[in-house]
């Protein structure tokens, strides 16, 4: 995969094949309501010190965060720019952000270990970069922007370091925290941020965007992607690559069979994953997303026991990340996931 000037390896590991990285695009699909809220705050000279940008994976949280950062670094908290917060591609702030080299923007993610794999948590070592970053001044009117992608990945030490910054925020600073599961964050962090919720994309928006991004796919293929992706453009693009659809279906089966896991089928699936490049990573992503979607749907319907499923979701997320980082046995990870889903189903009911 081609690298950009001064962009770290960490930044490239979240690129979805077939789509530009969020920092490289000005297109924000299907999130006009959220964009309007942010626009009124920025252009009205009344931005909060921090936004908590929530929503399912792949619906545009990072794209919106970079759009906010791009506008602040080009125009500051002012009405000098357009209402849709767009910035010309040849603007110096936009050029530097695309290159990953703007001194007024700091992106905090999980670090990369010596083998080029993502660490399982966003730790204090990454968060410590805030001190030197806020010792500098840059951007329009001295604005500095921090994107935490995602805040869900923070361990306790990192969360406490972030909380300290939120309690004593620097002037002309904006923190943009991205979260798939905001309920897992410290209440004190949530209370100090203005929450901005992004919804799953409408089927029509998904179909139109996939027509642009996947022109070689048939109408039937794109329709299948829309149905499986649950309003997540990122998920649709991952599904479209290689064994994506098959692995998404396997992830759904794993949840469907939570009350009676098929150990033989899981062993066979593990063997198949060993033959698929990044197969376990993809399965883990689809499993987390499918479970997230089901939890959200059941919670909105008032079904009890969702807290136990949210806890199980977090354990699954950590388990697959740890397996990838430490090169653990994929079969054991699958069996452990099935056992965890089974135990949760017995205590909280199916999801």
Q: Going by CATH, what is the homologous superfamily of the largest domain?
A: P-loop containing nucleotide triphosphate hydrolases
Number of strands: 5
- Average per-residue pLDDT, rounded, comes to 87
Quick one: biggest sheet? Answer: 5 strands, parallel
Fraction of residues in helix: 40-55%
Under the CATH scheme, which class of the largest domain?
Answer: Alpha Beta
From the coordinates shown, what is the CATH architecture of the largest domain? Answer: 3-Layer(aba) Sandwich
CATH-defined topology of the largest domain: Rossmann fold
**Beginning-to-end CA distance, first to last residue:** 38 Å
Strand residues, percent: 5-15%
* Shape call: globular
- Secondary-structure-based class equals alpha/beta
Put simply, the count of helices is: 16
- Which segments are poorly predicted (pLDDT under 50) over 5 or more consecutive residues? 1-11
Count of all domains = 2
Sheet with the most strands: spatial strand order:
2-3-4-1-5
Gyration radius over CA: 20 Å
